[in-house]
Amino acid sequence: MSDPLLSVRDLKVSFPSEAGRVDAVRGVSFDLHPGKTLGIVGESGSGKSVTSLAVMGLLSESARVEGSVRLGGRELLGLSDKDMSGIRGKDVAMVFQDPLSSLTPVFPIGRQIVEAIRIHQDVSPKAAADRAIDLLRLVGIPRPETRLKAFPHEFSGGMRQRVMIAMAMANDPKLIIADEPTTALDVTIQAQILEVLKTAQAETGAAVIMITHDLGVVAGSADDVLVMYAGRAVETAPVNEAFYAPRMPYTIGLLEAIPRVDTPRGRPLVPIAGNPPLLIDLPPGCPYVARCPIAIDACREKEPDLLPVASDLGARVVAEVGEVPGQDSDLDHRAACIRAHEIADRRIGGQPVYPVPEVPENRLAAVPREERPTVLEARNLRKEFPLVRGAVLKRKVGTVHAVDGVSFDIRQGETLAIVGESGSGKTTTLLEIMNLSAPEGGDLIVGGVSTASLSKAREQRALRRDLQMVFQDPASAIDPRLTVFDIIAEPMQAIGTPKDEVDARVSELMELVGLDPAQIDRFPAAFSGGQRQRIGIARALSTNPKVVVLDEPVSALDVSIQAGVINLLDELKAKLGLSYLFVAHDLSVVRHLADRVAVMYLGAFVEHGDVDTVFDDPRHPYTQALISAIPLPDPIKERTRERVVLRGDLPSPTDQATGCRFVSRCPLHLTLDSSQQQKCREVVPELTRGSDQADHLHACHFR
Amino acid sequence: MVRYLGRRLVGWLVMIFVATNLTYFLASFYLDPRSNYAGRRPPVPEETINATLSAANINDQDPILSRWWHWLEGVVAHWNWGTSPIGDSVNGQIGFRIWVSAELVLGATILVTLLGVALGVYTAARQYSAADRVAQGSSIITLNIPVVVAALVVVILAIKVNQATGSTIFYVVGSQSLDVHGFLPVLLDRLQHLILPTIVLVLTGYASVHFLQRTLLLDSLGTDYVRTARAKGLTRQQAIRRHALRTSLIPTATNVAFSIPALFTGAVLTESIFGWQGMGQYFATTLRTNDINGVVAVAAFGAAMTAIGAMLADIAVVVLDPRVRLG
Questions:
Q1: Could you read off the pLDDT of B190-219 as tens digits, one per residue?
Q2: Which pTM does this prediction carry?
Q3: Are residues A553 and A538 in the same domain?
């Protein structure tokens, strides 16, 4: 094989900190050949971003970097900032995670792209501007000539990420490093950006390092996979082997912990116990030992080396996915586990590496839905925001229809999930419900009581007992200056529970959500993200609610932690007969957790029904696009399935549409004849029952 | 932009009017020009005092509203800001003092800003280096030197230089010499007078701009877009100058613009020490001599300066930050 483009050997990065030296990267080696894509996977703090910044020479000056990074044979470590600046942007380009903050806000994007070109190429400003226009067109920005003068704040997040990619392509780099390029974006936009990155790679012939925590993204784009844990590569493999025949327990754990959008919920997810270790003064032995279900005494003695393992997919995998085409690969299959040779097909000695946890049977599941009481019902719910202009005298210039006639009911022991892109009105719907006042339009019925009939604050408080909420970001939703006891006890104190009852209940709740009641006096800072979310759940459960409203409860958590929280929610539902109203943008989580799902677009439901029916047979083009945009953690399925990629962004909800809201982005609309298209534009489609299924509504004229 | 500034200007004019009139009433209640004549030997007769005070329209025995109306009429109709208790025209005093102060304050402001921003940028880009620590240390020291001490040191050093060279390079007193003619000689003479008080103002004033700019720039150094700029192939220093500096200048510009009014009336000590007949010194004098009309005029001037500072800040922000939408 030819010489590698990038060759990293024994890369070590450490930072000084108050607590001691942090060894963020502890010996990473890999090769990357031209045109290939390497996926680096790991949870936050695993050292994947630090590795990429070390290659770019963009680490802070306090960082100590050792080892070797050779690009086309040239050693990059130890080069001065000036020498590195000749390489950055020209030979190696980078796309960062957060497109909202990655562009200089005070300069037009054209100027920023032109700058990137003219740093490395001696061309006239005019020629550079022409090239910038070509680049913008290539990454799919409409009307690039006029958009050149626009400022970053005039673009949406997805569009800004396109600009970033255009900038990265500007000098035909040999290597593009993409650090979580789609994490901050909606799934539909993520699919667009991944396509654009592929275009960029095809156009420039560059090698790509794709850094992500999303195994689905890796499955779809990488040739090789490098799994990082605690600053080390713990498994490297060609992509198919990494997914179908992982040998390191951590990789297996990651794969088992993610819910999948393409399979109905069969068994509970497998969470990985505990948290990643702090990278200060690591004890000897395997850093994963505390979380590993198959750890033996020898694991604690010496950190295992990353050693080659047999590259064998195993008979069962071959039978299931067929013969995997041979790959010409940069990385041979290696794993850092002394028991790797015992592991095959995610099993060790015939037993699964990760025992599947027990989740109690939901006794309500046996009762047909129609016979269970309705705990929460919304009828034609509406919420509008006036759009005002003027400094002193505000005048109304328009209306934002945030929630525009939403109806649903939730039965006891049932989970309804509302999904949609950001800006679709999901969270506003939740907040309208939590408000417990008479809605602007429609009716809201909690446990048989209409909120419009509540006249006194006391009645409202009584109702609040039945309806509690868990928030998205546990770090900011919990007061850092209250102890766990105060946090959990607060809702009970608010409704006037006697003091000794509160004391007993707090300990009980902590046990229920899997926290140690001995830690009752600690502050939130002493807990990890997953544990804080458990505190949030305990707080919501303290009043014995009938319905718990969950606003993206796991989106801020790492994959391995997320699985534990999802399982907990499942378990609580079965134990306590709870109902959940659940908002999420991650459809895999929805598929795993929900019984029913409603797809929201611009303030209204476009599809609504039983979760398996909707996911297996989506009718509305928007639902189809959403589901097909979710990357699957399965390389062969992910690369062979048909994908519906939506054009453009979510339109503004200010204009009351005369026809279907989705018409501007609808792939189906384009295939219709002109009279049908006219119907789409002029007649609002009602949410109607499909011909066959009873429990499946969708709002499309032609499905 | 023009319409926006026009609207702001109208707002500020209303502000100046209200502030000035409120000051008129406050000054009339608290300042007592009659006390200027107390304890005179021989005693000044009551009628003479009344006549003098009434002539200046500051007699506390006349009804306040009629005094105010008379004053307001004078200002609005004739741009006549009244007289001091002994009959000096306020217009005459302020007319030349504004230019004296402007000469001193504007030059010093420009130098303070340039020096402060330059030091802030230099030290922020080299945080915790020896140069940063030295600059921080010296700025802390100069920030804490009282103006009087700084002025004395500067004066003594200047006199030493004059003696050593045997000629008058630096003038220690006054804003200009009387017997100089011709454009270039006048310019040189003015500069010779200007240099010492300007040094004092800059020395005692630059540190706050330095610290502000350093902090702001450090904030924007850590931003993602500076990292993007370096990833494009700019060196760290280039990225700082081209991408981090502009956003961090916005608050500094606002800060400097709003410090202008304070500088005009706040240079009291510098003006007194160097014998400059400026606004600061006039402010102190009018207060001491119970000169109601003079005090009110100074207040009006301060309000006008604040308005100009605020408008300058607005313009600076609009120019520096395209995200700011007018209207």
A1: 899 999 999 999 998 899 999 999 999 998
A2: 0.84
A3: no
